[in-house]
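TA notes. Do not distribute before section.
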Amino acid sequence: MSDKATILFVDDEERVLRSLKMLFKTKYNVLITTDGNEAVEMVKKDTVHVIVSDQRMPIMPGVEVLRLVKEASPNTMRLLLTGYSDWAAMVGSVNEGEVFRFINKPWDNDDIKNIIDQAVEIAISLLGLPQKIEEKDEGSNQPGLLVIDEDAATFDTVKEIVADKYPLKWGKTLEEAFEILSNEGIAVVISEVKIGGEDITAPLKTLKQMYPSILTLVLTSFQDTKLLIELINQGQIYRFMPKPILKKLVEMSINASMRHYRACQKTPQLLQRHAVEKPKEDTKISGKIMGYLQKIRQRL
C-alpha cells in the first residue's frame, strides 16, 4: 500500500467505478469492487480511510455494507452514493451505518472531491484512536434530554420511555426549546421538523454547526428524502425515527445517543465525525434564537 490515504468505492456498475477511480487515483490509493462482501473484507484487511458505497446493488445493499463496515472499522468514514429516493434505505444508512454524507448521482466532480477530501482529513485525524471507544454509563451523573415538539403525546411517550434515567425537558415552541438549551446541560435533542406548521430544520442545523457535541434525534411523520439529505449533510442528525412512535426504537436511539455523547466527551476528537457542510443558501434564523445560541456558547 502507498502512503496515500485509501478510498474504497463500491458500486455494481463498472463504468461508475472506472469514473470514480479516474477522478481520485492521482491523489489517493483507490480500491474498487462491485461486491459488498468483498468491500467489508477489504476494510477488515487494510486501513481504509473512506468508503463510498452505492445503495442499489444486487449482492448487498449499500446500507448493509456501511453497517458492517461500521462494525469492523468505526473510524472509517462512510458515505452513501445514491441515484434514487429509497426512503427506507436512506433512514437505515443514518440509523445503522451512521453515514457521514449522502452523495447524489449524477455527482458534481468538484462537490464530490471536496466531500471526500474532508472525509479523508477527518479519518486521518482519528487514526491514533482505538477503533472502539468504551462508552460507560456514568450512573447518577447523567446528561439532559430535550424534546422539541408541540404534541404533548410525544413528550409523554418519551417521558415514559426515559422514566428517571435521564433529566428530561420539554420545549413546546422553538423559542422555549432554545431558552432551555441556553440554560440547561442538554446532551441530546429529540425534535420534530415542524412546529406550528413551520419548518424548524434551519435552527436545528445551525445548532449542530455551532455546537457539534449536542446530538439530534429527529422524530417525525414527514418522509421527505431531500429533507433527510440536508439533515445529514448540513445537520449531522444522529438518528431518524418515524411517527407513530415505535417505543423500542426510540429507547434504543436514546440510549445509543447518550453512550455516544459520553464517548465524545471522553474523546473530543470523535466530534470531527459530526462536521457539517455549509448550507448552500443563507439560513434565516430569528434574532431571538441567535441570542439563545450565543447564551449556549457562553454556558459551554
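Switch to the second chain here.
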Amino acid sequence: MPDGFERIAIIGLGLIGGSLAAALKQRGLKGSIVAFDNSAAGLAQGLGLGVIDESADSVADCIAGADIAVICVPVLAIPATLDQFVQFPGIITDVGSVKSPVLAAAQSAFGCVPANLVPGHPIAGSEKHGVTAASGDLFVNHKVILTPVDDTSASALQQVRDLWNRVGADVVTMTASHHDDVFAQTSHLPHLLAYALVDMLSQQGDSLEIFEFAAGGFRDFSRIAASDPVMWRDIFSANGAQVVRMLDKYQAELLELRELIATGDLDKLQAIFERAKLARDHFSRLQAANGSE
C-alpha cells in the first residue's frame, strides 16, 4: 500500500502531479512527498498549498532516497527525464498520455525496459493546468491505465496499482500499443477537432458575434480547446501516426456527410445520426454505471 512509501518523488508539479500529491495527503499518506518542477513559482505554490512537503532543485535531488518516483512532465520531456533515473533503485512510473514512446525512451536510457518501470496514464484531467488547479478528488471513479511489459516486476506493478487505488482510481492494464490506438480515437482526435473548430471560427471576420451567440453545444464541444497547447502539441508529436490514421477516417466521414447534405439525401443523413445516437446513448449508460456521468 502507499503507506509503505516513506518518500514519494513527483517530477512535474502541474495539474496531475499536484492532484496526485493532494489526493495522497487528503487520504492520510504517512510518508513525505518531494517535488521538482522547472517552475520555482509552482513549487512555492505547492508548498504553500500543503500538497508537498519539500521542493527539490533538480531531478537528481528529488529522487534521492525516494521509494517511488512519478514522472508528470510533458510526453516529449520524458526521455531526458528518464536519462536521470539510470541508477535509481526505486519504482518508476509516469502519467504520460502516450505510452509507446515511454517504452522507447526507457530502452534508450537503460538498454532495456527495466523491471522497476511501470508506465501509467490516469484518465482524468481538466482544461485548467498548474498546481493551483490541483484537486484531491481528481482521480475518484476515473480509470488509470498501466502498460507493463513481460519483464515488469509484479511487486512494482502491484504497488503502483495500490497507489492509484488509494486515490480512488480504477486501475486497468493493457499493452502500450493498444493504449495509444484507443486514445488516438477517444481523446487525441477530439482535442484536435476542438482546437480546429475554435481556430476556424476565430478567424472569421464576425468571430466576436459568433462567440457571443454560441450556445451550450459549442461550449461543451469547444471546452477542451482551452487545454494546455504545449502539452497537446507534444501528444500529437508522440502519437502522430495513430492520430493521422484516425484523422483520415474522420475526413472520409465528413466528406460523406457533406455529399449527403449537398445532394439532399436526408434519409441516409438521418441514418448516420441515428447510428451515432445509439452509440452515444450506450456510452452514456456505461458512464452512468461507472458513476462517471
